[in-house]
Amino acid sequence: MKTANLSLATLMAVLAACGTSPTAPAARTSLVAVAPTGGATAVNSATVVTMTFNHAMMPAMQAYVDLHTGGVTGPVVSCTAAWSSDSMTLTLTPMAPLMPRTMYSLHVGGGMRDADGQVIDMSQYGPMMGGDWADGGMMTGGGMMNPDHDEMGPGWLGPNGKYGMVFSFTTS
After folding, report:
1. Which of 6, 129, 154, 160 is deepest in the core (most CB within 10 A)?
2. How far apart are CA 19 and CA 77, in angstroms?
3. Do the bridges between strand 132-133 and strand 165-170 make them parallel or antiparallel, or are there none, so unpaired?
4. What is d(CA 80, CA 127) in angstroms, rounded to the nearest whole number?
5. CA angle 42, 144, 119 (to 5 degrees)
6. Is the peptide bond before 159 cis (omega within 30 degrees of 0)?
7. What confidence tier does 1 reach under pLDDT thresholds 50, 70, 90?
């Protein structure tokens, strides 16, 4: 019996020709940083809010991120949203300075998708950054199902049945 010693490149070419890919499944895209973090105090009223992911995000996912005065049922703060050139960092810039000594809540939708169409994973990193899961009870105390601004729709609802994460901070 003869055995063949194939190089890795040859083996990969044979597998590719057979329609078999030896690559491992891609890791889930995660939210890996939020600034300011949940629970932060004495945050400058001229701050910008940033969220960083470990993989490029699908275009227009900023539609599933809001900054609220108070809790998630409070008024939405007018912000501009801009993605980094690699689509991994989203920056929200409030249109006016935030009010002093006021709590704000960043709501990040649980149904956001990465550039490959996969739902992001906030399970590990979100709570480490002071985030709280947004459930139906948290969301229905105000206008979250307002026809002009529904934060309980598909882009907000994650596979775990939660409406994303909320990161609250207080200005100085």
Report:
1. 129
2. 50
3. antiparallel
4. 26
5. 85
6. no
7. very low
Q: Element (H or E) spanning 80, and its range?
A: strand 79-83
The CATH fold assigned to 28-170 is Immunoglobulin-like (2.60.40)
**Global pTM?**
0.79
Residues 151-156: contacts with CB under 8 Å, at least 24 apart: 151/66, 151/72, 151/107, 151/109, 154/111, 155/61, 155/63, 155/64, 155/109, 155/111, 155/112, 156/64, 156/107, 156/109, 156/110, 156/111
Provide DSSP, 36-49: SPTT--SB-TT--E
Q: Tens of pLDDT along 98-154?
A: 999 999 999 999 989 999 999 988 887 778 888 888 876 655 544 444 444 567 777
Domain residue ranges of the chain, discontinuous segments joined by +: 28-170
